[in-house]
Amino acid sequence: MSSLTLAVRDTNTMLRRNLLHARRYPSLTLNLLLTPVMLLLLFVYIFGDVMSAGIGGAGADRSAYIAYIVPGLLLLTIGSTVVGTAVSVSNDMTEGIIARFRTMAIHRSSVLVGHVVGSVLQSVLSVVVVGAVGVAIGFRSTDATVLEWLAAFGLLVLFSAALTWIAVGMGLISPNAEAASNNALPMVLLPMLSSAFIPVETMPGWFRPIAEYQPFTPAIETLRGLLLGTEIGHNGWLAVGWSVGLVVLGYFWSTAKFAQDPR
Q1: Cβ(130)–Cβ(66) under 8 Å?
Q2: How far is CA 207 from CA 14, 73, 204, 210, 239, in A?
Q3: Which residue from 95, 71, 78 is spatially nearest to 174, judged by alpha carbons?
Q4: Which PANTHER family does this one have (predicted)?
Q5: Which terminal CB of the chain, N or C, has fewer other CB atoms within 10 Å?
């Protein structure tokens, strides 16, 4: 078989392994999924009326804030899910299975690619679950065409791949699962410091650069534009640029670290 055929075969094997682990030990995925779901319910039912009035003006009802917050929560869901990827990679590195893989006739990159593909699939499934909760409590897309829905789905997959590669690198440099979870914590904190919950223009002037110059805000604004018909502007190109840049950075960082001698 050709090198490409071997790589695809071994990657498929590693993907099945990671999905089997996720099925056997669902508690980590469920715990990470609960964070965006609880935030969604908290902000909608506890703060929804007040936040809607602030965003839509006097007389706005809770539905205005549901429409605003769901796109941001979908991106936060991806950030929460990839924390589990960092933990899983760190466990593989510290429990000896990687050392055994190194002695076997398998394509070396398939170990990492299997983690990435498995994590992207879990992220997409998690986004579907959180999106379904959003629809159940009143979220509705406004005049989105089929092309815009496809573009929104493509953005979610690309952004998920970007964060996953970074999470893989964080897992590789972590000495244990606890450290991996802590190292990946910015994946959850950054969307909270973005435009996910309130518009950037309502933030204090000294804080706005933190929200503006990070990957989550342009991705959230692009997703809002695709699903709700709001202005996208330059955010679309920024979202794609951030995603592609993080994929490249995460890939070369992870493969370089993985190629080093095992710890």
Answers
A1: no
A2: 43, 21, 5, 6, 20
A3: 95
A4: NODULATION PROTEIN J
A5: N
Return the SS3 of 189.
Answer: helix
Q: Show contacts of 255-260: CB within 8 Å, 24+ apart.
A: 255/109, 255/112, 257/169, 257/172, 257/173, 258/108, 258/111, 258/112, 258/172, 259/108
Q: Give φ, ψ of 95 to 5 degrees.
A: -95, 0
pTM of the model: 0.87
Q: Give the tens place of pLDDT for each residue, 55-78.
A: 655 555 677 888 889 999 999 999
| CA-based torsion, 133, 139, 145, 149: positive or negative | negative
* Tens digits of residue pLDDT in 150-173: 999 999 999 999 999 999 999 989
Check if the beta carbon of residue 227 is closer than 8 Å to that of residue 122.
no
With tokens 């983690």, the residue in question is 115
Structure tokens at 127: 């986004």
